[in-house]
Structures are given as structure tokens and as C-alpha cells.
Queue: 2 jobs
Job 1
Amino acid sequence: MIKRFLKAIINALFPSDVTCICCDNELRYEEERKHCVCVKCQQEINYIGDKPQIIENAALGFSEFFTVYDYEGKIKNIVVGFKDGKKAYLAEYIAKMLYDVYSQKEIKADCVAYTPCSPQKTRQRGFDPMKLVAEKFAELSSLKITHCLERSNKGLDQTESADRYKNIKGLFYAAKDKKDTDIKGKTIILIDDVITTGATASECCKVLKQCGAGKIILLTLAQAASFERYKTSFIPRNENKNMAVDN
Ligand SMILES: [Zn+2]
């Protein structure tokens, strides 16, 4: 009787159907359940959310930058699984990871924007990944969400892999709906999954500024090692037209 009672309590506290978002193994500990990542996978993830990020490259368009993880190993699995593995449910966990840094760093913003994917890609995937994350993030942070950024269908095939290069100029534009672009003077927190060169973020910042945005803070789930050099220096002119797209 007592044994059955204890078992019921344990099951209620630790339902057995909760699994790691990286390896699908069952999660047993509270610490694992916080982000739905098992202890083993946590060891293979490099948390850099507590590191100060100094952006000296004004050309990027955002004045502050925060990120959560190094873009390698299991974090790649999460990002790729989420966007191209039809794992839309991961949006909730990604938003939670972003929100933890947002609250720990006491970031002050008025509303949330996101780097949208194109209508064609949205149809293929069945959802717009960062829009889903931004919606969850807005819920957690109680910030307003703005849908002022839109992405054209141009350059779709070239952005399939990070190795491909593509001119991203003009890929993003402001939404036609006036209520979506009502961000005059607002501090915007722009969220994205991975930053590699900063090209995508800086294009989005241009559009946000055209809509009248004040300060822009970038928050990404992960940072590729390649971004280190873009933090401090202006992007050389000859690279400018062939910049990698952070897809
Ligand atoms: Zn795992």
C-alpha cells in the first residue's frame, strides 16, 4: 500500500515520458528537466550565457548582444532538429533558454522581434521557427511581439547550408500592416537561433530602424565561433556582397 502510494508520488513528480531533447533518453533529475537536456548531453553543451559580449562593430546595427551557447555538438542537433526535423515543440525549450539569459542579465526591452523565414520555407517546414520561439518568449517575458519583419522568397536554395554564400541585401523588408510596424522609439529585443557572421541580424536591424526602432538588442540561442571576428571589426567591403547568411 505504502509502496504503491510512493510509486504514485514519484510518477506524478517525474513522469516517465519526459525525454532529453538532444538524445531522447528519459530524464530523471530536476536539473535535467529544467531545460529537458540530460546530464550527459549537458556536458557536451558549452554554456556561454554568463560571458560578457562586447560589440564594437557599429555596422552590425545592434548595440547589445547576448547569447546562450556555443554553436557546436548537441546545440547543433537542437537547432537543426527544430528547424528541419519538424520538431516544432522545441520552440518552447529554446524560448525558455533565451528567457533564462534575458532575466539573469536583467535585459530591458519594450518588445520582441524575430528573424522570420520566407513564406515558401514556412510552407515547407509547416511553421516559422523563430516566430514560434518569439511567441513563447513573449509569453514568458510579458513583452509585446512585433511582426514587423518579413523575408522574401529570394535566395532560398543558397541559404540551405551555412557554407553557401549569398548576398542578403533586400532579403528582409517591413511588413505592410501598420500596426506591426508601430515600434517608434521602442527598445527591441531581436531573437534568432544562431549568429555566424551577423549579416542576417544586421539586415534585420536596418529594417527595424527604418520602422523607427530605438535601441536594438540581439539575443541568440547560439553563437558560431566565426562571429568572434565580426564583433570588433567592420566587415571588409569585398566580403560584404558575399556574406554568409545565418539561416
Ligand atoms: Zn541527452
Job 2
Amino acid sequence: MVLEDTTRGLQSNKVKRLPPSVIKDIELKNHARRLADLSPIRIKVRQCISCGALFESAGNRTCGCNTRSTGYIAGREII
Ligand SMILES: [Zn+2]
């Protein structure tokens, strides 16, 4: 939480952002999760365990650098 707040100001240049489509997807999932009485997925900035870059994560530990699939979408590992 604190991490998220402090990185909000720095953002863009250093932090890989989630694509809007993924954020939208998460919002939809969160809506469903709320109805199901589950805690919502939180997007937070974390450091990639593979390359060390900062990135927005919805639960995954890497920024996607270690996957060769071009169809990979960040945040896909959730649920
Ligand atoms: Zn990475």
C-alpha cells in the first residue's frame, strides 16, 4: 500500500504499467469477486524477480520478461 502510494508519483518512466485491457479485465474480475464475497485483486508495484525491473502487478512476480509467448498478458496468473 505504502509502496503503491509512493510510486504513484514517480510512475511511468521506471514502472512498467499494466495495459488498459488488463486493468479492465481486473476490474471485471473484482466486480465478480465482490459479488462472491472475495477480496478484490489489488494492482501494486513490485520488483520483477527475474530482471529486477519495477512493474505493476496484479499478483504475478515477473514483468513478463521471462516468457517468450507474445500473447502473454501481465496479470494473467491470477485466479
Ligand atoms: Zn522482468
